[in-house]
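REVIEWER CHECKLIST
Item 1: Sequence provided? yes
Item 2: Single chain? yes
Item 3: Sequence as submitted:
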Amino acid sequence: MTTATAPAAQSSSPARTVKLAPLVALIFFSVSGGAYGIEGLFPTSGPGTGLLLLLVTPLVYSVPHAMVCAELGTAIPVDGGYYHWVRRGLGRFWGFQQGMLSWLVGFVDLAVYPVLFTNYLQSMVGWAAPGKHVLFTAGHLQLDLHWFICLAVITACVLINLTGTAGVGTSSVVLAVVCLAPLLLLSVAGFAHALGDGAGPATQLTSRPDQSLANAFGAGLFLAMWNYSGWDDVSAFAGEIDNSRRNLPRALALSLVAITAGYLLPALVSLTLEPDGPAGWRSWHSGSFSDAGEALGGPLLRTAVTVGGMLAAAATFCALLTSSARVPSVLAQDGYFPSWVARTTARRRVPVVSLLCSSAIYALFCLSSFTSLIIVDVFLTNITLLLEVAALIALRVHEPDLERPYRIPGGPIGLALVTVSLAGVCAWAAWQQYAENGTRAVTYCLVALAACVLLYPLMARRRLLAGAAV
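Item 4: Structure as written out by the authors:
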């Protein structure tokens, strides 16, 4: 198979202006955004298994993937990161699949966060609930106020992205402080409650007596994986990271610690509430940390947690939009899409056409439900993750002399452990999801894969006719 060499630098990229702190914040929001949104894990798997998932998933899934991203990202630190990794390691066909599938993941992944924003808003003001205040109906398409709030969030994030990656990074630092402050207050109030009359947070392993530990673990694994995925997203603008070969591994490590702690502390203290009470874990859903906040600290803490959840969802969307919107632009630079898709703003070099077109698609996907979005998201994300692992192995074999400022430790054994861990957890999660929910999500993913494979000959022919460099 013919491989393609990624450029060492891209002349059209802006200066490397993303420093370490903004990079950590961008990774934090690309992967997590805080504990907002993990509430559904506990009624699905139970308090004990839910906490176990939050501890085990980063070890078998996040740490290995972050190590893969650190090695590839420091060896090939260019805009379009993961696309160039796979293209260079496995060839143009697989590079195209990686780019297209990553973009398709964005359709699903990014649509989750405006929906999550409105879910938190709904917990504070009921008029924002789906189905209320229908403004437009055409056949099966029904646009209500809930969807228009999602659209407003998307519009605001597009405007922030137009300021450039450095601007998004700076705003992410500020929003990280604002979003984490309510969770810190929740944790303090929860520990005070636990020292008083709180229940033990993990006295029950599973969500119901007849649920096995294996079934509980498998049922919640997809949601845990979703909350711990996205380590490769910042590679899409790697050409803008200051001293990326030093700062990228450091930022990945720092954000991993912050994300894990940010999940565990609020969950641990909120689980001390009475399980069958109004804020107990049995009735939790996306947005329920607001109820826990009220139970532990009163109406003011409820409002603070709700606003924090809304801002975290918006900041996560904004950070992911920065990376996802660059994928069509990179494909256009390589000749697969029309050249006008790669058009950028004059000063900040923001891929404005790609940004606007992608955002319009994400707005349409906001019409889907939160749960169905997550299932398809994780399936497609894991496929792109495994392509990155395959590219890393291929580059180790075919380009052993490639400079690697960070290298997965342990030589071939270390690489084998990372590969087995990622492949094993992805395969087991897919099987558990199939056993639990049937073929629906699998069918959607197979359709997406088939579409990308069938699209390649057409796009490759277009690339040749357009005279793109081989």
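Item 5: Key structural point noted by reviewer: The first helix runs from residue 20 to 31.
Item 6: Recommendation: ____
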